[in-house]
Write a structure and sequence with these properties.
It is built from 17 helices and 17 strands. The chain is an alpha+beta fold and 484 residues long.
């Protein structure tokens, strides 16, 4: 029955469906560079079929066939994370959603836009900008991340400090449920749309989103060099708590700044200390107040005068290029941490203590996304061609998350690879509630299985923690951490 169902879909969608092993293999990974000999014994990441629908109706038709035949299905759009959140672990069908794109309509009176979920944030903003509007917030991976994909993640990024999470901006979503029913959900519907926020494609396929927009306002940019993390944190706190909140608040630690300089990317040729990028948007009056806030701040810290405005503008235009730091090595390994801002100084200090123990060059940068929290990307260089070293370094990713945990932080995003940490990410009550939602909407457990709610047997926290501890210990013992 499974074979017949797959063949039915393939015949129906012609050149928009493939079971070519080569083409399917392109859907068996995301940004994570994990050796196949580690993944393959544990999971079946090779899809049996990849299909590219162009509408909610086609998605519904596909889901009805696969759900009836008990075939796992994995939604995939930009696949711009490294958690295997959009990678199948039990084979089955991958639904590539990138053809379900384009703006449906803009309401200037309601200040909302309705867009297909496969639209990238860059394409959406290009459309909105041409009409004198802009999205309120967007991810740092906007050129490839889709509207529906970011909603399925946690939805905090550039602009969130001023306008809140994506959830607070979304008015309605269209979802194809696992059995093939097309539904529209609102804040007060049953269930409400927030059930699908950060669900990582495990409850249904989002095909359309209606969200709030803002006027396309002028901007003002500042770039502050800071001598150390402690001073950077003081400036950061003063800026985020001021009367006019910044639109974007981005920071880079000393190791990032030093590496940027080595690679020839350093703004203003700064080669030491930390950097704080402060970007405002708003009315002329708001920007005038922001200028006054920054002038007072600079007067209080005369040794930390900002870099030239043109340099700050250039840094803003290059906001999607954070991973240019990858050029410092063949590969990178690390993790993204959701961290209370009050813990920033302690977290970064402990990260460098860990780096010293393992002879690592560890770099951290991040965004302040709420008045209380930041998302921090902490990573180190690795070489996947040096297989033994690379495997040993996996244990150091857990060390990063352990430092985050000591400072009240936890991994940002779950997918597959962060399932051993779900006890840190969710409270027991929250996790029980999420599992009830999954059971209600996907009783067969076929929608993106193995993600978010439970860890696979081989990745239960006890086994996983022991294995990662052994790898980290060996990395330290034989001195095969990253290179400085």
């Amino acid at each position: 029955m499974r074979r017949e169902a797959l063949q039915q879909i393939k015949q129906k969608y012609g050149n928009r469906a493939t079971d070519s092993r080569f083409e399917c293999s392109l859907y068996s990974r995301d940004l994570a560079s994990i050796p196949a000999f580690i993944v393959n014994p544990l999971f079946n990441t090779m899809p049996d079929l990849v299909v590219r629908p162009t509408s909610a109706e086609e998605v519904a038709e596909i889901l009805k066939v696969v759900y009836t035949s008990d075939i796992p299905v994995t939604p995939r759009a930009g696949a711009s994370t490294a958690y295997f959140g959009s990678i199948p672990i039990k084979g089955g069908v991958v639904i590539d959603l990138n053809l379900i794109n384009g703006v449906v309509g803009l309401s200037e009176t309601e200040m909302t836009v309705t867009t297909k979920a496969g639209t990238t944030w860059s394409d959406l903003d290009e459309y909105l900008n041409s009409k004198g509007f802009s999205s309120k917030s967007f991810p740092s991976s906007a050129p490839v991340a889709t509207v529906g994909g970011w909603f399925c993640m946690k939805g905090y990024g550039i602009g969130s400090l001023k306008y809140g999470s994506l959830l607070s901006q979304v008015k309605a979503i269209e979802v194809v449920l696992p059995g093939g029913e097309i539904r529209r959900f609102f804040r007060d519907s049953e269930p409400p749309l927030d059930w699908f926020f950060a669900s990582e494609g495990t409850l249904g396929v989002i095909t359309e989103v209606e969200l709030e927009v803002r006027k396309l306002n002028p901007m003002k940019h500042f770039l502050m060099p800071c001598p150390d993390v402690s001073e950077m944190a003081k400036i950061l706190a003063a800026v985020k708590d001021a009367k006019i909140p910044p639109y974007n608040l981005h920071f880079a630690d000393q190791q990032c700044v030093r590496r940027l300089h080595k690679l020839g990317f350093s703004p203003g040729q700064i080669e030491a200390g930390c950097l704080l990028a402060i970007d405002y948007e708003g009315t002329v009056e708001e920007l005038t107040q922001a200028q006054e806030i920054m002038a007072a701040l600079i007067m209080d810290h005369p040794k930390m005068g900002p870099l030239p405005e043109e340099t700050a503008k250039t840094e803003w235009t290059e906001k999607f290029m954070a991973l240019r730091l990858k050029r410092g090595g063949p590969s990178i390994l690390g993790g993204e941490v959701w961290l209370p801002i009050r813990e920033l100084v302690g977290y970064l200090a402990d990260i460098q203590k860990m780096a010293a123990r393992y002879n690592l060059e560890v770099l951290s940068y991040g965004h302040v996304v709420t008045p209380q929290h930041a998302t921090i990307m902490t990573f180190f260089y690795a070489d996947e061609k040096r297989t033994v070293d690379y495997i040993l370094n996996f244990g150091l990713i857990k060390k990063i998350y352990d430092v985050g945990s000591r400072h009240c932080g936890y991994p940002y995003g779950v997918g597959l690879w962060n399932t051993p940490y779900i006890g840190r990410i969710f409270s027991p009550l929250r996790l029980a509630d999420l599992r009830k939602r999954k059971k209600k909407l996907d009783p067969k457990g076929l929608m993106n299985p193995g993600k978010v709610y439970r860890w696979p047997f081989m990745m239960n926290p006890l086994h996983f923690g022991l294995a990662m501890g052994i790898l980290a210990g060996l990395a330290r013992l034989i001195g095969r951490g990253g290179r400085r």
